[in-house]
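Priority: medium. Attachment 1 of 2:
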């Protein structure tokens, strides 16, 4: 656990910092992001201070992604987006959090992903990653 008062998400979980709480269960909490990309942009946080989602217990991971699913379904109903963008962070604020962002065709994230996909398919340095040898090596290194 970080020093008291040093992690904003720990303070939110403890009720010491204000947040717009959307949903919670025993292990996870969903709040509105205070710097939203789109209306309804939320963060799902683990109640226990852990920097990275893959360091959570199995039960905490089930909770984290279950809360994300529940809130995403509500977002689909409330905002009618094309999709809900989900990504995990822990770098700037070293406490596991999933971004849930309702995304519509043509908005800033849609444009970003279109540009990123074009980038992913084009540059020589990334094209090299698609060779049979590189794919075989990556599969070998990741195989469980």
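Attachment 2 of 2:
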């Amino acid at each position: 656990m970080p020093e008291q008062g040093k992690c904003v998400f720990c303070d939110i979980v403890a009720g010491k910092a204000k947040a717009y709480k959307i949903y919670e269960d025993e292990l996870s909490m969903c709040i509105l992001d205070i710097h939203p990309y789109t209306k309804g942009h939320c963060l799902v946080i683990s109640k226990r201070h852990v920097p990275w989602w893959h360091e959570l217990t199995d039960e905490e991971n089930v909770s984290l992604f279950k809360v994300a699913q529940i809130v995403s379904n509500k977002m689909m109903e409330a905002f009618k987006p094309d999709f809900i963008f989900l990504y995990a962070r822990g770098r700037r604020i070293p406490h596991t959090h999933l971004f849930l962002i309702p995304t519509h065709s043509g908005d800033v994230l849609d444009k970003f992903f279109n540009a990123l996909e074009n980038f992913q398919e084009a540059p020589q340095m990334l094209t090299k990653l698609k060779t049979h040898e590189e794919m075989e090596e990556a599969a070998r290194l990741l195989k469980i």
